Fold this protein.
Amino acid sequence: MLDIRNVSLSFGALKVLNNASFSLGKGEVLGLIGPNGAGKTSMMNVITGIHRPQTGEIRLGGIDITTSKPHEIAERGLRRTFQTSLLCSGMSVVENVMLGLEPQPAYGFWGALVGSPKVRQWEEEARQKSMEMLDWMGMAAFADRPGSSLSFGQQRLVEIARALVSRPSVLLLDEPAVGLTAPRVDELAEKIVSIRTEFGTSILLIEHVMQLVFAACSRVVVMNAGEVIADGDPKTVTADPRVVESYLGRGYYAES
Amino acid sequence: MAVPVQSIRSAWRSGSWVYPVAIAVVVALIGMTLNPYLLFLLTRVVIFSMLVAGLNVLMGYSGLLSFAHAALFGIGAYVTGLMQVHLGVPYPVALLTATVGVTGAGTLLVLPALRLSGIHLAIATLAVAQAVHWVLINWSAVTFGAGGFRAPSIAIFGLNATQSIFLTSLVLTTIGYLMVRQLVRTSFGRKFVAIRDNSVAAAANGVNVTATKTIAFALSAGCAGLAGGLYSALLGFVAPESFNLEQMILMKVMAVVGGLGTMLGSMIGPALVIFLQEQLRDSQGWLEIIFGAVLIGFVLFLPKGIAPLIYRVLAGKRTETVETGPRTGQKVGLSAPTDRAVEN
Ligand SMILES: Nc1ncnc2c1ncn2[C@@H]1O[C@H](COP(=O)(O)OP(=O)(O)O)[C@@H](O)[C@H]1O
Ligand SMILES: [Mg+2]
């Protein structure tokens, strides 16, 4: 579904991604883990067109998107959430989700100016779809609140609803469990699994909370200092000495 | 007397055209009874409302700064006036040409806006404004230079010149207002707010940021051009100083005082500012100081302007609140314009 081939990215002298490769299969939930500063978010930014890699190639469903613009990539059915993003404060929660139904309303500028029946119909359907999506995420009660009035964890769930409302083929989640309590993390893990089973979405999940990674992911890629250092099923990967050394820490097995 | 607050509120929120049109009719009737001087002032309010509505889409909804809109307003006035004077073109044709032309010119302002934002964008647009001003003053063969020129007035239905331009402006502003208000309640409004609040997230959700900025500039320029064309017929005399930086600042004060990011604010701001301007006519030297103080006062104490207060009165006290969650369930959103957080 998503192929990352030999991608390198530098900011000036700082090499953030170093010849990194991995791929996300259709209908797979793939974990991307690694220490802070490993380049996980940068990888997601490269995939979504926010940064352009100096070398390498990214393919989405076989199509080269390496040099595509962010909105074009979104249009091709790849959506994401952000590690530190907030909802738009000037819109209600449901309007924030409706934004996920861009880019192609069935009407143009002139239709919107005069408020044609087509416009009203599309808007109504969009609102309904967004409400259903919010409901599915358990956030329907917040629909009419300002986006900024929600807690960080709640905004994250709405952001997932926004990313999903257009039924993308690929979803990238950047640390969705930040700000959630342990029972909420379990709920989120269930949600992520049902995103895959109900919508057939392929998911790339960046996460530090190993509880979530083990519960949701069938495979894990580990990054360190811009390189992919391990790729395999969660059990094997977390037993890899290099992974234990660089990320999980020597105390990992003593704890669990 | 029982006022059906509930139905007024829902009609207003549903984007019904009934109330704005009813208000326009009342304004028209009042206007026709006013003496020429008061009618002149009222027409100024109407024309500036059109301009500020467009500016509001740009500054309030989309979060893009511009200091060029007084200049665009000026180009609208000059093109409309000069086409009649030099080419003998009828007013409606000149007005339409000016609107289309200014829309085109204003759309080009998106070019700096694609690379710059905030203060850098403001400076770039300021440079454009100063360049336009320079041309108006120095290209005397066409523009009549610093002294300006007499622009033809209009007459419709056997009314006098001020009444004619008043009604024309009122009709066009009402239509323009309804259209812009309709637009910001659709996906376009969401895109404007999204590029203002978080353009990276907007793009990741499929919003074409470049196209959205272009539309915001085009729309605001179109409003400025049309307003300028109307203004030339109202003033009867067009000169560069009507469109200088001071006028630009006045327009910004109107937008901020009324309430950025609310359409109602586009009407209230010009009314208050022009009223205040009249009150202070005799103390010219104080005008700038007082406007400066008013602007600072609003930014500090009422950053959302007056419109949200009016919406609150119109809506009455809300009783329904959502039970769960951290805050009271006050409705917000583009189709329910109460409090709107606007940065700048
Ligand atoms: N826009 C940027 N400019 C310069 N350096 C950046 C930028 N974005 C990320 N970095 C650097 O790239 C490295 C990887 O960061 P990031 O991808 O956020 O890591 P992770 O998400 O794995 O914690 C860090 O050293 C960070 O400081
Ligand atoms: Mg990160």
User: Anything to note?
Assistant: The longest helix of chain A spans residues 117-136. The beta strands of chain A are 2-11, 14-24, 29-33, 55-60, 63-64, 78-80, 170-174, 202-206, 219-224, 227-232. The longest strand of chain A covers residues 14-24. The pocket of magnesium ion (ligand 2) is lined by residues A 40-41, 83 (CB under 6 Å).
